[in-house]
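Summarise this fold before class:
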Amino acid sequence: MAPADGALDYYLLVGGPRACLRQYQQLVGGPELPPTWSFGVWFSQGFSSDSEQAVRERIDALSRHSVGCDVLHLDSYWQRRGSWSDMQWDTGAFPAPAELLADVHRSGMRACLWINPYIGAQSPCSSLGRPSRALAL
């Protein structure tokens, strides 16, 4: 890929690693600080099968026992089994995901839905990249 006008700007960063990183940060900017809630308490069911009912029971138990929690983490089982990371809820186990997420938020927590950096081979989405070889299978 080349710039439209054919010109490139070159930058020379000089010094040790710390000095070069400082120069690079001045050039491109520094990282954003994550939101405060992301540094708080996260609660997960421990990577096991899950359901909307079980999540609601966790919300109730955290409240009943006065356990402060900033993020309720749902491991990969919120998705259809074998179709990891295609962003589709398992509507058998989670029949009303929008209402569940609203209830998590109303309880004072954020929801974190675990996804993986790949699409499961059993997912209907896995066929989308095959014609162009965009996905490594």
User: Anything to note?
Assistant: The beta strands are 42-44, 71-74, 110-113. The helical segments are 17-28, 52-64, 97-106. DSSP finds three helices and three strands in the chain.
